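Predict structure. Chain length: 646.
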Amino acid sequence: MITAEKVKKFYWRKIICRFGVPATIVSDNGTQFTSRKVRDFCAEMRIEMRFASVEHPQSNGQVEAANKLILNGVKKRLGEAKGLWADELITVVWAYNTTPQSTTGETPFKLAYGVDAMIPVEIQDMTFRVATYEEEQNRENVLVDLNLAEEMKAEVRLREAAIKQRSQVTQNLYLKCVLNLLIVCSFYDFYIHFWSGSWIGAQFAGLPKNTKVKYTLRLVTGRMFSDRKWIIPFFASLLVSVSLLLTSFLGVLSSAGGGGEQAPFDIISFKRSEDSSGYFVESDLDNSLNVSVMVKKEAPRFAYLISGTKGDSHRLMRTLEAVYHPRNQYILHLDLEALPRERLELANTVKADPVFREVENVRVMSQSNLVTYKGPTMIACTLQAIAILLKESSEWDWFINLSASDYPLVTQVDLLHVFTNLSIDRNFIEHTRFTGWKLNQRAKPIIVDPALYLSKKSDLAFTTQRRTLPTAFKLFTGSAWVVLTRSFVEYCIWGWDNFPRTMLMYYTNFVSSPEGYFHTVICNTKEFRHTAISHDLHYIAWDNPPKQHPMSLTMKDFEKMVKSNAPFARKFAKDDPVLDKIDKEVLGRTHRFSHGAWCVGTSDGGADPCSLRGNDTVFSPGPGAERLHELLQVLLSEELQGKQCL
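Prediction complete.
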C-alpha cells in the first residue's frame, strides 16, 4: 500500500536526491498525496503542490499515454511469462527514456540530464562518437551541452506548442465535418417526418395554430422505408455530405502537410507562387538580380582589392602594375601595422602617376584596418572594399582579392579576353564541406579577435565553451582568395533576405573566417549555389602535411606555375628573382604595364608605350589566354559542374 510516508521518501530519494529540488510537483488527488505529512514536507522544501482534476485529460491523459507505451513494451518482452513483469519493467523504462519522442524531438534522458545517454548498442556496433571518443574532447562537449540545456528545453516547449496547435486545428476540422454531417442528417429527418405528419416525441396534428412546440434535431427511427418520399432528399443530402467530408479531409491534409520544418505557430502558408510573388519586396530584388545576371557586356571589367601590411607598399605597386588595365577598378589597402608615412607615400605615388590620374581607377583606402588572417577582420576589410567599389562604380563584373605576395601568370588582356566568352554569373571559389579534424579545430571553438578593438595585433582569445554544429545551414570551407561576380557580392553587402548578415555574425567568432564566410553563403543560397566553381584560380604550393600558410614560390616552381594554367600564383617573397622571370617570359613586361592594344604610344628612347592610351575594348590575346582557356574548359566540364557545393 502506498502511504504518505512512502510518498515522502520517494520525493526525497528518487526526485530531490537525483534531480534537485523541483519548483512544482503535479499529482492526482490520492489521500497519500494530499496528507498533512506530504504537504508539510513540500512546504519545507518550498515545492508547489498541484493536483490534477478528476478525469482531467490534459494531465491524466499524458500519464496514461506514457503508461500505455511502457505496458505494451513489457507485454512484448514477457511473452507467456506474465509474472516476470517487474524484472523487465526497468529495461522497458530505460528504452523509453533513451528514445526520441515525436512531440519533443529529444529523448527524456537528455531533457532531464542535458546530454544523450550511451546505450549498449553503440558499444556493440561502434558508432561514430564511440570510435572517435577522446576524454578531453568529450568533457568539453558535455559542458557545451549542459550550457545549452535551457535553450534546448525552450525549443522543445515551442515544438510541443506548435504540435498542439496543429493538432487542435486538425481536431476542429474533424469536428466541423461531423457537425455538418449531423446537421444535414437532422434536417433530412425533420423534412421526412414533418411533411409525412409524424415525429417521434412530438405530434403536430391537432395542436392549436399558435402553439409553440419545442423539438430537438436528432437521429430517430420512424417510417423511413414505408414510402418513397425519402429517396430524392436522401441522395441530395448524401451528395452534400460527401462534398463536406472531402472538403474537411483536404483541409486536414493541408494543415498537417506543412512538413517537419514548419516554424512554431506558423499556420498560414506563405509559399512562393506566381500569384503571391508580387506581395513581397524580395521578389523585386530577385527579379532585378536575374536581369543583371542575364545582361552581358561585350568586354568585362574586374574590380581588384590588393592588400598588404607593414613594408609592403612597393610590393603593392609592383602587383598593381602587373595586373593593371584601364577597364578595371583597383583598391589598395595597407593595414594598421603599416606606418602612416608608408601609407602616405603609397597614396602620393598613385596620385602622381599620370596614367592613374587620367583614368581615375586606382584608389588607396585612407582608413587603415588591423587585419588578422585567422580572425574576422579580413572579412570586414574585404566587405568594406567591395562596398567602396560598388559606391564608386557599378561598371564592373567580377571582384578579385589579392595580397602583396600574389602575382599574375597571365596578362590582363588575356584574362579579359577569356572572360569575355564566359558566362557572367560564374563565381570561382574553392569550397568543400567541413569534415574531419576541421570540425573540432575550427567549427566548434569560439574565438574573440582582439584586432576588433585593439590597435596592435595579438593572438586570438579562445573561450572555454564550445558550440555545436549548426543545423540551420551547412558549413563550407576553402581558399580565402576568390573571384566573385558583382551580383553575388551585392547580395553579400545588401543581404535582402538577411542570410549574409546572419553568416557575418556567425563567423565573427569563427577560426579562419576568411576561409568559410563566402563559401557558406554561396552554397546555402539557391540563387547562387549553381554558380560556384570550386577553384580559386591560383597556383599555390603546400607543405606535406599542409601548414596554415603555403610555401614561398621560387625559380624551381616556375615550370609548375606555368603548366598549372592558373591566372595567379602565391605566395612570393619580396623581390624574388622568379618575379623578374615571370615579367619577362610570361607577361612580356618591358615597362611598367603589360602591353595591350590600349598602349598606343611609342617605346623610342625608353618611353612607356602605355603612357598614351587607346581603345581599351580591343584585346590581342597571347599564350596566356590559351592556357587559361584550357583550365576553364576543365573547370566547366559536366563532371565538375555536378560537384558544386556538395
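Summary: The chain has three domains: 4-133, 153-256, 299-641.
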